[in-house]
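Quick look at the format.
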Amino acid sequence: MASSQDATIVNAEHLQELLDVLGAEGFRLVGPRVRDGAIVYDDIRFVTELPVGWTDEQEAGRYQLKKRNDAAFFGYVVGPHSWKKYLFPPQTLLWKAQREGNAVRFVETPTDDAKFAFLGVRSCELHALAVQDKVFMDVDGAYRARRERLFIVAVNCGMAGRTCFCASMKTGPRATSGFDLALTEVLDDSRHYFVVEIGTPRGAEIMKNVPHAKAEASQSAEVERASQRAVSQMGRSMDAGDLKELLYRNYEHPRWDDVASRCLTCANCTLVCPTCFCSTVEDVTDLTGDHAERWRKWDSCFTMDFSHLHGGSIRGSTKARYRQWMTHKLATWWDQFGTSGCVGCGRCITWCPVGIDITAEVAAIRGSEKKDGKRND
């Protein structure tokens, strides 16, 4: 864990120099920007492209941007995008073949040598990246190569949204590991600056070329103050104790029918989730039959085709599909990967069209056990 006691200070006017240094090192810089009525992740070059002076207001099934009364660069929570789309792209060409007479020749696909630098990664998202690492690092060479080249500039949360519950999942709001640099933005009446914690030797090398000064004790303390402020604003909570056992005990709980009556099976929750990794493989060709391609594409456990085997879908009802998603996320993920699949970012709550709240569903099942005074075995 990087220590705020060893932190440095970078004035806001020098943030562009950090971006310039990363660009000069050959990184493709990706960060937050305002587009299509939301704060999304996209390629950036200049600090003026960041969501300066913007924040987001979120509630179950609702998201809107709102102007702040200051010039904060990172005064928002999280939007509909997650960083996984750069490491685990929505669609990937696996191979291509070309027919040449009576023979078939496999065409070498271009090597993906992208070298990303992510700017503005929140603590919950760092934990999401660690979850994705457990899924892909040992089985996907392209993912591993992108991940090993990745440079991460985290941003500690100084505020929380109405759908955030990272404190319950012990994934935030302060970044403690998994970053090269971590920034805490501070605005007061006289100064706008960042407290910078260095997490790796790579981060230290980058900072050599960015104007900075040693942080005073009062400035270093701003990191913890920002974290406590975000915790106090957390809009949701989830009792994560014995969560796996709770869901295993209640596989036939009537709450699954209740949530199924509201769920649209639209798959929004899985698309915005920073840890979901379901995919499908599609083979495509053209009418001439001269070439064929195999693509891996994002999919969702909410789609009928995803669980379709010979004879039909093994999860043919909304109830079965929602139960699969939530139970996998909070319970069976522990059996597979030794961790929770939920990092408490709240995206699935915000971007559900009907406002289904995973924390409320857990609370309802847990509450029924307490009311009955017994377990629903």
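Next, a different chain entirely:
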Amino acid sequence: MPKVTVLTAVKDGAQYLAETIDSIRNQTFEDWEYILVDDQSSDATVEIIKGYQAQDERIKLIQLDKNLGPYGAANVGLKAALGEYVVRTDGDDISLPNRIEKQLDFLAANPHLRACASYAQRIDKDSNVLEDNKVISSLTAGSMKWYLFLRCPLVHSTACVERNVFEEMGGYDTTFTSQDYKMWSYLVRQNYVAQIPEILVYFRLTPSGISLSRQNVQQSNGLKVAQDHIREVTGETWSLDRIKALNALGLVKKGSPVFQTMKASRLWDEYWLADDTLSDEEMSELASLSRYLRKSFLRRNRRHQFLQVIMNARNYVFPKPRSGKHIPDPNIPPY
């Protein structure tokens, strides 16, 4: 029984798949099986996997007889997994050599956790590291819980999760995209997850990826996941317009209406400031995040929405954590 199951669901991934498989074979931790689920590829994906199978018996191929999509294919892999932990990686991302070892050591040192993520760094289509393009975010479940109101800041390919947790979740929901967002939201609400503040994965954005090729669908589904998460945390149903405004803050979007975004931002601040379960460190982290995002958003939009930015100039300043704390009014109407 391997300690770890590495899982990749892939369709037409021949261009980068060898780099991904090599990065797993080069891990310092060696007690793993690697399940690759082929979702009816029409390129050389299967041939590449079979070539590696001939070299390494830890590599296992599952070929689907019909297309199930990335999450349906992943569910098939989860059912076949034998490892205590499941390490996820997409078929075009690269795990650094000590990734699995560091994640297992981190979980062993924090036995209250059942999952972890890590920082990631983007690479281009030619696998060149983009030095100024790091994906970093909150470190603890407490602060992540509130960050996920804004957007999903965690990279799916950094996930290391107890296999039993996927069973608790019922696997991935196959009805729509953004299931990584839904997974992280579940993990933080259960206080199962923390993030290692170190880059352990190189993360590739390609035109064929779901995030880019189905950007509008991905955004719509992401807003619905955020709405569900907010409901689970607050007990209230926020309008999609309000969540969209908050998402504009999280993404520092250019062109999003300043007034609506700042109004949503203030409401978000009120809620996390009222969370007595947060530590002083988590409060400070969220205060810094809020200050940074509002400044960045207002500066990015000051040219084309100058008057609204001037009217919201007070939002450049943020009170110290735990000062002016009050319970928000749940009856504030949606936009």
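The first helix runs from residue 17 to 25.

See the schema section for token definitions.
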